[in-house]
Amino acid sequence: MTQLHDQIYSSLAAAADPETKAKLARLIPGAKALGVTVPQLRELVDAFRRQHSALTLDQACGLMDELCHGRVREEILFGAFLLGHFGKKTAAIPWPRLEPWIGALDNWETCDQLASNVSGAVVAADLGLVERLVELTGSANPWQRRFALATASELNHKGRSHPRETLRVCQPLLADPEPAVRKAVGWALKEASKKAEDEVFDFLLAHRAQMPASILREASEKLSPAHKQQLM
Fold this sequence. Notes:
Elements: H1 2-15, H2 18-27, H3 38-51, H4 57-69, H5 73-84, H6 95-103, H7 108-125, H8 130-136, H9 142-154, H10 163-170, H11 179-193, H12 197-207, H13 213-219, H14 225-231
Helix pairs in contact: 1-3, 3-5, 4-5, 5-7, 6-7, 7-9, 8-9, 9-10, 9-11, 10-11, 11-12, 11-13
């Protein structure tokens, strides 16, 4: 795996751009970035897959372990995009395999992409893992809390419909002090409302005193005018 990791890093370093790096520093505070855009990353992943078409899911997971080690934005995103290309097979990744990757998250982008490409499918395939997401809502690390919410939101994407599980993850974070976490709460509730409007409306009505107005606005965006009027 080390040889493949070195190959990936070399391709990322060659594509890095100082101007992009400066933009990323403003857009994604705290991220350790080289300066490669997401479209470029996807192209590099596609090229890598063509070159290593025999790579198995287990090997890709081992590679992701190495890519997360340095906590470099582009390496983590590369690994997440690579794993996402395994499609339905990704759902078979055991939760313990994800835990070191979760520990490497330090910005909203890597949180959201790991959830979108990997953990959403893993949890949807075994809803008992929602308990792990609820545990993460109690983490002192705001990016782990954000990751729990991003994963919960994915439970209502790509043909999935698990709004009740999403509400369980959102509830402990309704008054979270971190802006990036609060934004993810509103986003996750909005996605759940597309699958179960009445259930989400009842949840918002019951808990609106606990949440900032910004969460309530975001969460109710897709509700009917009648429901919005009752909430606001």
